[in-house]
Amino acid sequence: MMNDMSGMMGGMGWGMGLIGLLILVLVILGIAALVKYLFSRG
Fold this sequence. Notes:
Oligomer: single chain
Number of domains: 1
């Protein structure tokens, strides 16, 4: 799986890296918001 990812990254260029980074940031923000919501509700 890692080989497929590295091969895709090399073929597509740094655009895929930016998209992956953006998705990662959105996921982290979503988890942080969920944790804050759960703690503030309790």
